[in-house]
Amino acid sequence: xxxxxxxxxxxxxxxxxxxxxxxxxxxxxxxxxxxxxxxxxxxxxxxxxxxxxxxxxxxxxxxxxxxxxxxxxxxxxxxxxxxxxxxxxxxxxxxxxxxxxxxxxxxxxxxxxxxxxxxxxxxxxxxxxxxxxxxxxxxxxxxxxxxxxxxxxxxxxxxxxxxxxxxxxxxxxxxxxxxxxxxxxxxxxxxxxxxxxxxxxxxxxxxxxxxxxxxxxxxxxxxxxxxxxxxxxxxxxxxxxxxxxxxxxxxxxxxxxxxxxxxxxxxxxxxxxxxxxxxxxxxxxxxxxxxxxxxxxxxxxxxxxxxxxxxxxxxxxxxxxxxxxxxxxxxxxxxxxxxxxxxxxxxxxxxxxxxxxxxxxxxxxxxxxxxxxxxxxxxxxxxxxxxxxxxxxxxxxxxxxxxxxxxxxxxxxxxxxxxxxxxxxxxxxxxxxxxxxxxxxxxxxxxxxxxxxxxxxxxxxxxxxxxxxxxxxxxxxxxxxxxxxxxxxxxxxxxxxxx
Amino acid sequence: xxxxxxxxxxxxxxxxxxxxxxxxxxxxxxxxxxxxxxxxxxxxxxxxxxxxxxxxxxxxxxxxxxxxxxxxxxxxxxxxxxxxxxxxxxxxxxxxxxxxxxxxxxxxxxxxxxxxxxxxxxxxxxxxxxxxxxxxxxxxxxxxxxxxxxxxxxxxxxxxxxxxxxxxxxxxxxxxxxxxxxxxxxxxxxxxxxxxxxxxxxxxxxxxxxxxxxxxxxxxxxxxxxxxxxxxxxxxxxxxxxxxxxxxxxxxxxxxxxxxxxxxxxxxxxxxxxxxxxxxxxxxxxxxxxxxxxxxxxxxxxxxxxxxxxxxxxxxxxxxxxxxxxxxxxxxxxxxxxxxxxxxxxxxxxxxxxxxxxxxxxxxxxxxxxxxxxxxxxxxxxxxxxxxxxxxxxxxxxxxxxxxxxxxxxxxxxxxxxxxxxxxxxxxxxxxxxxxxxxxxxxxxxxxxxxxxxxxxxxxxxxxxxxxxxxxxxxxxxxxxxxxxxxxxxxxxxxxxxxxxxxxxxxxxxxxxxxxxxxxxxxxxxxxxxx
Lengths: 499, 531
Fold this sequence. Notes:
heterodimer, A: alpha+beta, five-stranded mixed β-sheet, 18 strands, globular, B: alpha/beta, 20 strands
């Protein structure tokens, strides 16, 4: 373009302004009949100038978005996330299907954590898990075993698995097997135990263990048989329907659970099982609105795992908490965890409980937000904003706001209230740091003491520091790769010259 | 009783926060309220006035943006900090209850922040035909945003100040390379194709194109041209530092070229403080190249003979008049040495200005008129005084000076700072004349004349000489000019009437107001005039 003509154009054509800063300036322009787009600007990288500089270097030279190789990597990664087709293919014992699972392995939620560092509910769940596996006879003995070094603790996420709250998985537990048909990878999650005194909230009393044993010996075999009769169950379709029925796939799973019962009931009834066992199974499912939460988590996990390990991509593939730390992983930074202290959940407490009773944020369930539903689909589930004292407008605002930090809109999960637009999907860590907009996570609140259970629910956002660290690491890895390529280029030129 | 609230990750602009602070202070029992972003400077200021961040309360649960304020983490520049000192716990509770409403992301009739774009690039996706970025973010972030805009092919008006001069030069070079216009940094005023940007008046469209390194200078000329029946094509700003030796008039030259090529512009007006000589020569040479008639007003420069098509004006008003003359429009005759249309006591003159260039012009006109007068914007060191210095004789203050605005809004946006000074001067029996400006237009306060009239009226009632007699009769006289047009949101005629109703004498221009004062002071106190 002729350089002179651009200023001439400005003076001859209509002025169209982008306004950054004082909002009143945009109002003035409009009041005077001009056209202005106001930007909801805030200091990039939360005012950290070094990090802001880094981000600027990663921006595309022109237009929108990030420069190469990030742009292509993100397109590829989020493409795989969107194309995922998670299906339930069965139920199996954890040690038969989960990679790296052994008799003395205890998987847990969130980033890596040692026994001594674990929070109350997670310690309780570990004790319960060891009792359940018969690795200890009493709670005291279980604690001793846990601290002895003879048990290996490992994050679920490092074993293609996810677990709500404490997220404890031990060898003999039955797990859902969810397969991503499009990419062939699998993900695993336990069967949800219900509310109240349950292992995932750190309870390990006899009734908890008895229930776990019943789930292993009675519930799981029946469900597994029914699943075999049913054949692979399309989880994407089930979640898509649930989202149009007031669920968001994290804190509200009532519709999805009902749909699952509809799918399985005829097959359960046809089994050659005692009527009472079938009835008890159906009652158990009916009595636990969150029964499908673990499935919606496994669906998210296997969709995101398909996008993991995409070099240079800033797509967030994991957000998980262990009650002490919040951790995230990016597609472009491999197995690295980026962690920061776990935040406190803001929300409503059940009668008799308050903020002082609450554990810090815990659980792998933020995988739902990572995959593009949960808090990101809040507009689909206006009922749950009551937990944070909000209104339906706030639910819609939350989903819209998440659209600013995501790479795409879901093709499958759509929100009626937003004109059936897809849910914002695929968190871009660079965008999070650039805009300071943090992922909105719907979550339950656990009591800080083991075994009390859920005492409320609310909304939480990850510490920005996780994202800042991840972005620094990604930028470094890209720079290194480019330096390496440049050196190789020089070398090959030299070789050519020598030849 | 003091309390501090922190809203994590909630960024709001300074003008909006100003309104919040004012509204909080208006609540019963509230002694002091400050809503500001958690920048190191703001935190330091809060600590100085006795607010302890360690005692901060977390923001309410309904704040969707920051549901989990964790006060163990340090406060950052994108965290909102509200500090309130109130009579008792009840008053603090009222504050807390009002806060949510005041800070609501959904201003009445406005758009929810959620549906606004989050970055400049996002905005471009929304409006791919956007052609100019108006940037008024804090100085530390301004250069990066301007660079981003230029690289995306946008012209830029950079309102922000506190941009390092090296960044200014680099940005201006990048703009030139890309054939784009960069106005600023510290560019307060522009009017492009009739659209007001920043602090700007609504002037009739016409053949006069203005380029200015001074915001209120542009406003005064554009307003006068409008009020005298003319019109302007565009008014382009360059930023206050453009004509320094270091920056070398990079924006001024580009803007002159742009107006030279613009068929809608027949006459050029250049306005600036007196620039460095070599830069002035470069500007004059470029003006000569345009082959269009031009008027130059270097505020504070000595009158010069015309050079080709370029004529030199004595004042901002003179520049407006000459531009109309060149456009072939009828003009009022030049303002002569009038008798002052008021009488005043024998005390000294207090000039109390919101507009920097208006203050400087007033000082220049008074000096030319033979008055010994000091100012914080005086061009010559022997008459320069520091802001807030105690001055016994005549003095003109630019109250927009950083030294006056620490922790206070600029008096053009929120005139309380200036109007308090006016009230004090009017009530002061030793003061003879109070000389003020009153700037209208977008960006300015909604009713600056009303605020000024209120301050003068109230001070006169309680003044030692008692009641209206003060203004109507002997001393102190209040003399003003109003910079604005009838099309401005405040309306020139209405604002002028507000001032006249309380006995303020309103001149046709800032220069005339100063000339009146000079004539009075020289006539009545020859002995006090410097040789």
